[in-house]
Design a protein that fits this description.
The protein is α+β, with helices and mostly antiparallel strands and 152 residues long. The chain has a single domain (4-143), classed as 3-Layer(aba) Sandwich (Aminopeptidase), CATH 3.40.630. It contains four helices and seven strands, in the order βαβββαββααβ. The protein has a seven-stranded mixed sheet with strand order 1-2-3-4-5-7-6, sandwiched between helices. The longest helix has 15 residues, at 75-89. The N and C termini lie far apart (33 Å). Bound molecules: coenzyme A. Coenzyme A (COA) binds next to β4 and α2.
């Protein structure tokens, strides 16, 4: 059975932070965004996560991580797709991310590298931008298109 992806709850936070530590990703500020964090679980075991920080019409995608033993099986892409679907549901126009290690992973979703100063000011004020991620991190952006509304 593939891992099941669901919204995170506060009870998931310790295991999420442990996975971030093990993946060498910053944990700072994530606790304020549990409501828009996703988790992947095998039974009760947390094996993946992805989080969105919402800033009006923009969002920061962060904390995309998969347990080392399950990497390379599509879960990272599945978590990213779920996070982008969540962004669509929140009517987000631009999704940003910072990465030091996975600049080659995100272009498949349409993310493109941009200069740091092209980032929306609200996102630039996030903890991840101001302190958690080094200035050398790559900045990427995905512009989301409106999905056509369903015909009933
Ligand atoms: C990045 C990460 C989430 C990918 O998850 P995953 O489940 O292994 O990825 P998937 O199996 O869905 O996708 C595999 C594809 O992504 C590519 N890929 C995986 N990690 C990558 C990385 N760090 N950089 C570039 N490409 C990467 C693989 O080469 C593979 O490419 P292919 O489809 O062309 O063969 C996972 O490696 C991880 O947790 N890394 C540590 C944390 C991290 O760096 N997160 C990203 C920054 S927020």
């Amino acid at each position: 059975m593939p891992p099941v992806i669901t919204p995170a709850t506060l009870a998931d936070l310790p295991a999420i932070l442990e996975l971030l530590d093990g993946s060498k990703l910053p944990r700072a500020g994530l606790d304020a965004h549990v409501a828009t964090t996703l988790v992947a679980k095998n039974g009760k075991q947390l094996v993946g996560t992805a989080a969105l920080e919402l800033y009006r019409e923009c969002a920061l995608l962060r904390s995309v991580a998969v347990a080392p033993e399950l990497r390379g099986q599509g879960l990272g892409q599945e978590l990213t797709r779920h996070a982008l679907a969540l962004a669509h549901r929140h009517k987000i126009k631009s999704v940003y991310l910072l990465t030091e290690t996975a600049g080659g992973f995100f272009p498949r979703f349409g993310f493109r590298t941009i200069p740091r100063d092209a980032v929306d000011p609200a996102v630039q004020r996030s903890v991840e931008f101001t302190s958690a991620c080094p200035a050398s991190a790559l900045v990427m952006r995905l512009e989301l298109r409106r999905q056509p509304s369903a015909v009933s």
